[in-house]
What we know:
Helices cover 79% and strands 0% of the residues. The protein has 109 residues and is mostly helical. Residues 1-22 form the signal peptide. This is Valyl-tRNA synthetase. It comes from Pseudomonas vancouverensis.
Amino acid sequence: MGTTWKALIPLVVVGIANSAQGRPLTTNDQYMCSWGAGTAARAQELKLSGVSLYAARQKLQTYKFAKPWMRMMAMGITEQTYDSASKMKPAAVRQGFYDDCLRYKVARK
């Protein structure tokens, strides 16, 4: 019984430290991650359907963006998606991007 408690104590300490460290994300952070994840998923769809990077960039130029930073961010996400050799489904790309973005935002706080 004593060795079990000795093994569990470090896990409890790490859990408490992680929960104290993570502050809640703002709605803006969540929106930004969600928007980026959608952009990555659309880029993956285009890539898997055989659309060239040039055509994907042209398509992005026709979109109306709500905020000024979105156009350049969308271009960057699209280029990174095309540079990747990944053949993952767009839904998996969306979820992975969203999870990684949230993890990054939490780590920065």
